[in-house]
Amino acid sequence: MASLPEPITSLIAALGRLPGIGPRSAERIALHVVQSEAPSVKELARLLVAAREKIGECSACGALTEQQPCEICRDPRRDGSLICVVERPVDILSIERPATYRGRFHVLGGKISPLNGIGPEDLRIASLEARLGNEKIQEIIIALSSDVEGDATSFYLAQRLGRKNVKVTRIAHGLPVGSGLEFADGLTLSKAIEGRRPLA
Amino acid sequence: MASLPEPITSLIAALGRLPGIGPRSAERIALHVVQSEAPSVKELARLLVAAREKIGECSACGALTEQQPCEICRDPRRDGSLICVVERPVDILSIERPATYRGRFHVLGGKISPLNGIGPEDLRIASLEARLGNEKIQEIIIALSSDVEGDATSFYLAQRLGRKNVKVTRIAHGLPVGSGLEFADGLTLSKAIEGRRPLA
Predict the structure, then answer these.
(1) pLDDT tens digits, residue range B18-28?
(2) ipTM confidence score
(3) Are B5 and A34 inside 8 Å of each other by CB?
(4) Do A106 and A131 touch, CB atoms closer than 8 A?
(5) Chain B residue nearest residue A103, CA to CA
(6) CB–CB of A20 and B43 under 8 A?
(7) A44: exposed, middle or buried (Cβ count in 10 Å: 0-12, 13-18, 19+)
(8) What is residue B50's predicted lDDT score, i.e. its pLDDT?
(9) Cα–Cα distance measured from residue B74 to residue B67, given in angstroms and rounded to the nearest whole number
(10) Angle B148-162/B126-134 helices, nearest 10 degrees?
(11) What are A140-161's pLDDT values in tens digits?
């Protein structure tokens, strides 16, 4: 032998293509699977296919959803004048977690990155502009990460959307609440000083 | 929303039950899956079920195999007088890797561990004794790990099998080849000195 049977090696190869799964953990999972109860393996296979088949992008905002449009876009209690622009569908979860934001969302699907061949036309910007025409949007809050590409994309959006008679803002970057100055890196500290606000 | 759609949360829960997959990586994999091409997800599901259905334990040695008996047990070029006893089916791969061992194997399926309620009757010891009766076995090489349970199981096997007119040996524990004394831990060094062999 000197090698595992083919059904296991094929499974290891497929598992190894999932994000965050290296060759060792793919092997560990595959060996676990072949020694598991058959019904639990079938159930996992069924859930994989079901999730892929049932979940799609919201036609309005791009969030992951089972129904069209998604729950947030359908919710009449949401403030339709506020749109928060995020990079990926998961980012919505982060902003929803504290349950303080009451507006809607728009998923960009990425950031402008000339090095990776991603231009503005590859992002969901045209559909955001279309929403500006159809919905009563007053403010667009950009919640992209604060790296080179996030900054560039934010400035690009501010310029392009600023012409459409809508307020464009960006979430604040600064010290995490409850954290002292001694734990902050230099960049965060500069951002915190740059973004200072009057106290009274 | 504030939460992911149900098909995704169910998938995350199922993925989180796999070995080495925490909640964060389960979420990452699930989100990757719902945004992947449908055929690749179906293929992964198919491979999971196929591996579970096609792979079983070799009726003779307990290795993972598609056919009965396994490739090694069927191979007439293998030395049938030598049996290497390992804990898990994967351990066979480790011993096969250098391609120097030419005997057969026997998978014990665990180690004696009173704390975890695993006694000799829970391991594949009876089938090993049966092989001693049916096959022309001259030597049993125990290749269990060198921890408390591995040591206890090895001594138990040596006692129980020693009565059957078969030589029982254990693989050597000592310094890894190419590694200096300065990198060895105390236990390994004591084992290395204990297991010293005459040079000439």
Answers:
(1) 999 999 899 99
(2) 0.74
(3) no
(4) yes
(5) B1
(6) no
(7) buried
(8) 96
(9) 10
(10) 40
(11) 999 998 889 999 999 999 999 9
Window 51-110 of B: residues touching A by CB (8 A cutoff) are 51-55, 63-66, 70-72, 89-90, 92-93, 96-97, 99
Query: What pLDDT band is residue B1 in, cutting at 50, 70 and 90?
Result: very low
Joined tokens for residue A92: 């919505």
Residue A41: which of B7, B30, B49 has the nearest Cβ?
A: B49
* Topology at the third CATH level for domain B6-54: Helicase, Ruva Protein; domain 3 (1.10.8)
Q: Which residue of A has its CA nearest to B88?
A: A31
Tokens of residue A162, six digits: 């600023």
Burial class (CB in 10 A: 0-12, 13-18, 19+), B145: middle
Q: Say what the pTM is.
A: 0.73
Query: What class does CATH assign to A64-194?
Result: alpha beta
Tokens, residue A134? 């159809």
Q: What is the largest CA-CA distance in chain B?
A: 77
Contact B28 A38 (CB under 8 A): no
Across the interface, whether the CB atoms of A34 and B43 are under 8 A apart is answered no
For residue A11, pLDDT over 70 is answered with yes
Supply the pLDDT for residue B2: 55
> Longest C-alpha distance within chain A, in Å?
77
Query: What is residue A99's predicted lDDT score, i.e. its pLDDT?
Result: 86
Break chain A into its structural domains and give their ranges.
Answer: 6-54, 64-194
A55 near A64, Cβ under 8 Å?
yes
The token pair that represents B103 in the structure block: 């005997």
Beta carbons of A71 and B19 less than 8 Å apart: no
Q: Do B44 and A14 touch (CB under 8 A)?
A: yes
DSSP state of A113: B
Amino acid identity of residue A54, one-letter, is K
At A19-62, the pLDDT tens digits run 999 998 999 999 999 988 999 999 999 999 999 999 999 999 99
Structure tokens at A194: 């740059």
Same topology for domains B6-54 and B64-194, yes or no? no
C-beta of residue B93 within 8 angstroms of C-beta of residue B99: no
Q: Which residues of B touch A34 (CB under 8 A)?
A: 51-52, 55, 64
Using one digit for the tens of pLDDT, what is the confidence trace for B136-186? 999 999 999 888 999 999 999 999 998 888 999 999 888 888 888 888 888
